[in-house]
Amino acid sequence: MKPRSGNPHRTAVFTGTFDPMSLGHLDVIRRGRLLFEHVVVGIGVNPNKTSLFSLDERIEMARQVVRPFPNVTVQSFEGLTVHFVRRIGARVILRGLRTLSDMEYEFGMTLTNHQLDPEVETVFLMADGEYSHVSSTLIKQVASYGGHEALKCFVPEELIPPILAKLRGDSPPATRNE
Questions:
Q1: Is 136 a catalytic residue?
Q2: Which of 12, 17, 104, 106 is deepest in the core (most CB within 10 A)?
Q3: CA 138, 139, 142: angle at the middle one, nearest 5?
Q4: What's this model's pTM, rounded to 2 decimal places?
């Protein structure tokens, strides 16, 4: 898929496993879509992580959450982020930073990506302070012990039923296709 604009520098790719997508992720997407003509949410397959949700479930949940944003799309990918960015014809990686330890990790990844493809740039957005501590591990713990009301602080409302169902071992409720 080529970027919607003719300029690959106006398309940003925001990648992650998004298992599940948090309000922090959504904050980066909301702000990124104002800076770029097109934002692609790239849902990656990480063989080193055990995901709560299948790839197809994560894609459908992400599409549901970003549906209000006409310049945001969702795709899955395997392999290196920088290769995915190049394959879709973009030149910008969008990353969110929560903490100083994120910065250390992201700095190393940015240097690696630059070595692999010097034409791909990385743009960082600082997480809103409200979301700087949120991780998928925290979300799963809150879901397990705090339930629906507690999750409202961390994930989009429409993702709460599938998260709770998955943690109970139920089949997640079908997401709406509007």
A1: yes
A2: 12
A3: 85
A4: 0.88
